[in-house]
Prior knowledge:
Layout: H1 6-25, E1 28-29, E2 38-40, E3 46-48, E4 55-56, H2 76-84, H3 92-107, H4 117-126, H5 137-145
Antiparallel strand pairs: 1-4, 2-3
Helix pairs in contact: 1-3, 3-5
Amino acid sequence: xxxxxxxxxxxxxxxxxxxxxxxxxxxxxxxxxxxxxxxxxxxxxxxxxxxxxxxxxxxxxxxxxxxxxxxxxxxxxxxxxxxxxxxxxxxxxxxxxxxxxxxxxxxxxxxxxxxxxxxxxxxxxxxxxxxxxxxxxxxxxxxxxx
Length: 146
């Protein structure tokens, strides 16, 4: 379980926010944010990789219903769409993904990890996020926003 110092996470998450903001401005949702899809170059700058699950043509008010992504990083909207047939999801799924990545970088595991996928989906949609005591109040507050 590898973790990063808060200062380093702040640097990476700021870049990730800019990358997702750019994609959203281009009406693209990424839909598969996870540490494995974030590459770091020699200068410490990030690059997003694997756009295979991305979806183009999604404006601010548009929704999609495809069930895709890595289970531990799916947003509640995606899980609810699968389980309850909701009205779909949009760009907010990537915002959740930013928080999930931040959590994993600081804690060492995805936020709602469980051994069985149904249990994980239940946690994603119903559980309250818990934090280790060593995280700063600012980091916890930021993760709650995502």
